[in-house]
Structures are given as structure tokens and as C-alpha cells.
## 1
Amino acid sequence: MAFFDTIPFLGYSLYQLCLLFLIWAFLGWGVEVCFHTIKMGEYSNRGFLDMPICPIYGFGVLIITIVLKPVSGDPLLVFLLSSLICTAFELAVGVAMRKIFHSIWWDYTDEHFNFHGYICLKVSIEWGIGGLIVISFVEPFTEMLINAMPIVLGCIIIAIFAVLIPIDTWGSVAAVKKLNVRLKEITEINAKMLETAQGIGEKLGEFALDTQDKGAEAYAGLYLAADEISDKAEELAEGIRSGISDKRAEMAEKMQNRYDALIAFSDRRVKRMIRAFPGMQSIDYEDAFLTIKSIVSGEEKKNAADKSLSR
């Protein structure tokens, strides 16, 4: 069958490619989790998906395996090409995710020799070392594992993940889309609240200036009209109080209630993503995203404190 036949220009069958992708996606996820746990001192499910796989590693290692297998006997060339290929792939994924989700998922701007925060020299060197280790030592064992695995078992694994990965991907994409809608509404409410506050300030300022002008006129010779001016000033003040305090207060209360509901964040997927990508940023709604991020961070600290007390 074509599914099990070796593709000449790839050197693998579709069956082997699917299993290699799953193995490396899982191993990449495991490395990310271990690295993050050591660095941050706490476990975090890394990656865009809820599942214990990182597709970017699955595709990345597949690419370098296919391209570099013919030159696997030259360590320097493997290192250099791994650095180049993985860096280009990371740049492409970073740009694509920014365009699709209007978000920055990792940021290397604090690293030396970076390109717009997407890639940097330090990580490129790490990609090269990782590629060298993969091609020289690990990849042969993955092929041995796949060849030793019963074909029926391999097909079952592929079939299961062929169903689960699209479902997980759809759920994660939908969660980010809903987050952007939420951030947009939070930003709009903040703008309306600011506009309301400015409107009240302008009305009060106009009242103060009007009263001052009328008072100046009175001192200039219209002393007899003082009672009239006082009545008009009181009438104006009353109009401001009644108009602003009723309508604007009601509007402000509704906006505040909606704002509180929006920032009372409860989306499990997005919370996990924020924890998994500490450098994540929103391009269009930075302030609103920082508010959500601070809430998630506060929940983490509270949970950590509760666990500490329970011990």
C-alpha cells in the first residue's frame, strides 16, 4: 500500500513520517516542560495544544531529519544546517502566529543579536546543537523503535492522534479568537469610561467658568442681578447633577459590571497558554491583555500560597 511505501525523495513512508512526527512532537514537549520547570520552579504544560505534544518540534525535526540525513557524517555541516533550518522555521511560525492571532508568543528582544524578537543567535546555536544531537544519536533509535513496533499498533496510534490533534487545534484556536474578542470589548469599555470621566470634567469646568464670568459681570456693575445669576448658577448646577448623575451614573454602572464580568477570566485553555508562554503579548490590546495576565498570575500566586499552607 502507498501508505507504507517509501517515498523516494523523502526516504520514509507516510506511516513512518506520521510516527516520527508524533514521537518528536512528544519529546519536544517533554524537553520544553523540563526546561521550563527547572527555570521557573514549577510545572507548566508547554505548547499551543492541551495535548502533551508540540507540533512545531514534530515538523521541525522531520524537516532536519529528511534534509540532513544524507550529510549526517559531517557534524559541522549538520550543526550549521540545523541552526539555519530551525531558525528559519521558528521565524516563519512566529510571523504566522502573529498574523493569525495578532499576538506575540515568544520574545527574544532582550537577547543579543535578535531579529524583531522572533529569533536570536543564542537560540540558533541551541537549535544547531539540538539538531546535531538528534541526527547523530537520537534519530537512529526512533527509527529502530518504529520498525520494532507492530504495524497494527502504529496504525492505531496514528488514527487516534489524527482525530485528537484537529479537535485540540480547533479548540485552542477558538479559545484565542474568543480571547481577542474579550480584549477588544475590555479596551472599548475602558475608552468609554475615560470618555465619560472627561465629559463630566468638561461639564464641571464649563460650569465653573460660566459662574466666574457671571460673577465678574456682577462686580462690574450688575450687582442687582446677583440673585438672578445665583438662580441661574444653581439651575445649571442642578441640571448637571440630575443629567450626569442619573444617565452617566447608570451608564457607568453598566459598563463597570460588564468590565468586571469580562476580566473575571475563566477560560482554562487561555490561562494555560498564558502560563506556557510567559513572553506572550497582544499586539492590538496590550493594556487589556496585561490586565488578564496579571489576574492569571495572581491566581497562580494564590494557589502556590494555598499549597504551601496546606503542607
## 2
Amino acid sequence: MKRRHLLALALPMAAARAQSWPERPVRLVVPFAAGTTTDILGRIAGTAIAQGIGHPVVVDNRSGAGGTVGAAFVAQSAPDGYTLLFGTSGTMATNPAIMPGLPYAPLRDFAPVAAFARTSVVLGVRPQLGVATLGEFLALARRRPLSVGSAGTGTTGHLTQALLQLRSGVTTTHVPYRDGARAVTDLLNGTLDAMIYHPLGFLPHIQSGAIRPLAVTGVARHFLFPDVPTMAEAGQPGVVVEGWWAIYAPAGTPTPILARLNALTNAALAEPASLAELRRQGLEVMGGTPEALAEKTRTELAAQRELAQAANITAD
């Protein structure tokens, strides 16, 4: 009886706190360094939320361990609406699949708020390789070893390389780098045969002809490269991989707060200025309900675990 009485008292108190939220600045944890794509997007989201709630949203860059430091901090924070995570497909799906002993569980420790943006990645080759299509690239890889670079183990590029290898049955050598810029340099100078990378990082080199795009990994062609086929159009329908970003709160955050944050995020994504900035970053708008983000998190996590196990991918 005593426990039931305490619960009856706690529920109205939580509702009252949710009604008065926010009464002070909100912290938005970006689990990567300043100047990264995640940081840029997080600041767009933070500005939009701040305008809607009438209080500052302070971006807190807590980088380290592939985003797990910042994600773990939010998972362990009070569920009061004052600490949020600008999560990524890496922090919410890939890392839990390839990092044993992770200090958080995406489905247990977070309350989804809203999906923000997404992008497919591009398979690009050096023109001197002498291939013009994905089919020609795979045929060449059957005859001799080919190297495929990425921005690191567990990145979207690495996952795409592994998935393409599993689906096609063609082996290529994955070469992880500490950052994508160094890998692009090696692709340009001929050290690498190919690389899988985000569209904006390839754009100037594709425009100059220094890199030849063979396929993109989305369900549809990328707006930056309307003439480049999807993996499915190029003969590999099972290879669909996207990087994505979304806002999460600690599990247990009151539903009215989540609903308000969701509405503010969706309204911001509909603004012409936000649309233009995301497009400038080579990204597509997502948005949607917390329930839709919860389902995406579940399905992505299951897919990444399956891929990591099949391809024997583990964190360095």
C-alpha cells in the first residue's frame, strides 16, 4: 500500500514538472568534436529548439570512443528534459553491435524524440582503375585484389564494404583510416583502388573527374548525383546503407516533454533555412514521430548486429 501511495504522489509531481519545463537552459550533447558533421547538425537542432522553448540550448561536445562517451553521459543523466543526445547511426546501432561491454543500451536507456537527417554513401574509384560500373568493379575484384578505404572501422563506409562483400560474394580488402580526408587523399594518389564515403566529401573530386562514382547506397539516387545509380539499380539490391542522426532523451523523460521536443524538431525541419542548410551538407530531412524513431532504432540495431556477426566486425 505504501509503494502504491508513493507512486500516486509521484505521478502528479512528474506531470507538474513536465508542464513547467523548461525553466533553465537545456544541454544538447553532441558525442563528436566541434566542426564535424554531427556537430554542425546538432547546432542547427539546438538553435531551433532554443527558439521554440525560449531558453538557450547549450551544445556540449563530449567526444571519445566513437561517440560512446557522450551517449553514455546522456544515458546516465536525469530524465528531466534538460539533457538530450544528438545521436547517430553509429552511437545507436553500430557501436552496440561491434563494441562489447558498451556502457549503455540504446533501447533501454533512451527515449526517442525525433529523427533529424540522413544520407547514403558513395562507392568511388580512381579512374585509372578502368572500370565504369559496379559490375565491372566486382568483375575486376574477382580477378585481382582491390583495396577499399573507409573513414574507419564501423563507419558507414566500412559497413557498406562488408555488406557488398557478403551480398556479392566478391572479396575486397578493407582499409580503415583514422579520418576520411586521409583516405580520400590516398584514393586520389592511387594508394587506394576505391573508397566508400559520404557524398559531400567526394563532391569536388567527382565534379573534377578525379574520382568516378559507381553507386550510392540509398533506396533512391542521391540528389547531388542524379546520374549515379543506386546499388540496387547497379545489380546489388541487398546493399542499402544510410548514415542518420536523431535526437534522444534519457529513458523515463516525461511524455509531454518528448512530444514538445518532437513538435519543435519537426517544425524546424520544415523551415526553408533548415532545409537549405541540410541540403548544403548533402543530407536529406527525416523528421517523424518518436514511435517511428523507436522502430528505426530497433530495426537498425538488429541489422547491424546481424551484419557485424556475419562479417566478423569488431571495434579496433
